[in-house]
């Protein structure tokens, strides 16, 4: 029996992970520092969005600092750079810089590769100290607008981004994360980007299922084994390490959601299970509910009124 009362939450969790794992020989056990687990935890933010993010930054940044989370994922907008510097200077929180500026006009719109130089220059001049990694565009299969040749666009964009980062003296040592996709078929359509990424990228959502389930559910959720063994090799046949730049459960129970209590438990299970399976960093989607009138608005660690969900308290207690 493991007695947790005398242990820190994270040490207790690590012991529970080991205890819950299948019995294996001593030769195959890989030891890890508990701090490396904390290093694997991140959360998505949307500092440039109007509404709860822009109206409540002071409270949200304090809650983020209180949580102990060391990494956030956000876009390359001027408001984000301002927040990123504040978070780094205040809490040493770094930002995964999500790239992908599009042609001016209504969104969704095609990506504009001619803006890559300006985007990277902004990162260098406005937020260099804050950078955790540089990520290729987000789910372009869902946001390409009228771009009929979007598969070629995202492939060429990702290659160009990587080459420009690695050719830049100030950026070359930062890791480049591959593009994420919203449909499984897109990974096959775009194909290998092995020579143009340092990390593969997966958005692993489980809807009403627990993170370690095996198989497939009616909402389109696949098991971790399927993601790692079937989908990930499409992007990186050499099996480069993976970052899960989005994952989590919605608490919008009217449509594919789970209770807040279950979300608190599953959030910890996701972080632990992904880490155990070798995923380098996992970004929970997202910091605060945007309260959109559907399941997309209820993924937060915090409610829209800024009160704590069980998932926030669970992550905070785990890290502390």
Automatic annotation (TrEMBL):
UniProt entry keywords in alphabetical sequence: Signal
Signal sequence range: 1-26
Top-level taxonomic group: Eukaryota
Record's keyword annotation contains Signal: yes
Signal keyword on record: yes
Protein name according to UniProt: Asl1-like glycosyl hydrolase catalytic domain-containing protein
Lineage: Eukaryota, Metazoa, Spiralia, Gnathifera, Rotifera
């Amino acid at each position: 029996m493991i007695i947790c009362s005398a242990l820190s939450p994270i040490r207790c969790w690590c012991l529970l992970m080991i205890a819950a794992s299948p019995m294996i020989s001593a030769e195959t056990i890989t030891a890890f520092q508990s701090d490396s687990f904390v290093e694997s935890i991140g959360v998505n933010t949307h500092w440039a969005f109007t509404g709860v993010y822009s109206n409540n930054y002071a409270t949200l940044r304090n809650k983020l600092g209180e949580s102990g989370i060391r990494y956030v994922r956000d876009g390359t907008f001027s408001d984000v750079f301002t927040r990123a510097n504040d978070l780094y200077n205040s809490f040493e929180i770094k930002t995964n810089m999500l790239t992908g500026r599009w042609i001016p006009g209504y969104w969704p719109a095609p990506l504009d590769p001619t803006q890559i130089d300006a985007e990277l220059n902004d990162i260098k001049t406005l937020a260099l100290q804050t950078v955790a990694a540089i990520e290729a565009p987000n789910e372009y299969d869902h946001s390409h607008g009228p771009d009929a040749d979007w598969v070629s666009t995202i492939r060429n964009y990702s290659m160009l981004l990587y080459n420009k980062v690695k050719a830049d003296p100030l950026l070359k040592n930062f890791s480049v994360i591959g593009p994420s996709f919203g449909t499984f078929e897109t990974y096959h359509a775009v194909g290998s980007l092995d020579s143009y990424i340092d990390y593969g990228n997966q958005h692993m959502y489980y809807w009403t299922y627990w993170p370690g389930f095996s198989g497939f559910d009616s909402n389109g959720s696949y098991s971790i084994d399927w993601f790692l063994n079937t989908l990930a090799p499409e992007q990186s046949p050499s099996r480069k390490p993976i970052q899960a730049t989005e994952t989590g459960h919605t608490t919008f129970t009217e449509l594919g959601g789970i209770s807040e209590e279950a979300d608190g438990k599953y959030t910890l299970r996701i972080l632990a299970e992904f880490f155990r399976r070798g995923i380098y960093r996992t970004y929970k989607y997202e910091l605060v509910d945007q309260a959109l009138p559907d399941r997309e608005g209820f993924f937060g660690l915090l409610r829209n009124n800024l009160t704590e969900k069980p998932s926030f308290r669970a992550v905070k207690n785990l890290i502390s």
